[in-house]
Amino acid sequence: MKALSLLPGDPSELSLRLCYTDELTDSPQADTMERWDVAVLHEETTAGSITFYRVNLDRGLNAFRVMEQESDELDEIAQALLDPDTGNFTEDASGQLSCVGSSLLVMDKVTLDEPWRGYGLGAILAIEAIHRLMAGCRGIACSPGVTDFSSDRLRDQTEWDRVNDKIARGWERIGFRLHQGNVYLLSPVSTQLEEQRGAMRQRLAELGTSWRTAQDESPAP
């Protein structure tokens, strides 16, 4: 982990702003899939973002087809979890989930600004957002990997693989398990999810304490 003194602010003061824009269009596609944008804020300054899709399998159109048309990333998840004919969970995916809820929550992208990276904050913030959005969902899915391709160091295949493996391990710590290909699945009623939320909240508080201590110990300019 990078030195805490390099953080641009107290990490325990980060906050989330969840936003769903309803365009008031009476369309089956809008009924099937909702996009939720989560802004990561520090003193009202944007420090990153998380994008979720809430897919309602029992409303509107065939959810498989809607995800297929939206993006390659959502298509990958639909191919792994949903039946093309019914738009519902496949028998295999269904067997890994409880019978509570009728929607699928997809964590699409988690992005932090460069100064905030390298401290494990992505997983801490994501688990809080998941907790707010998972009500009524039967499953939570993601396809972990690098979303920011601007770094020159990621042009090296070894470094690319290392970073992707690190990201996947972060989601496994929350409770996500590899289902098929690069698609990970998590049950909202997983005890690990709730346990890790508590542990990560404590970790965030500890990071804040350590950051403040580092600031107090820094030599005066």
Descriptive notes:
The protein has 221 residues and is an alpha+beta fold. The protein has a single domain, classed as 3-Layer(aba) Sandwich (Aminopeptidase), CATH 3.40.630. The protein is 38% helix and 24% strand. It has helices at 28-32, 63-70, 72-81, 91-94, 121-133, 157-174, 191-217, and strands at residues 14-20, 33-42, 45-56, 103-112, 137-142, 177-180, 183-186. It has a 7-stranded mixed sheet. Helix 2 runs antiparallel to helix 3 (72-81) and helix 5 (121-133) crosses helix 7 (191-217). The radius of gyration is 19 Å and the shape is globular. The two termini are 25 Å apart. The model has no long low-confidence stretch (mean pLDDT 90).
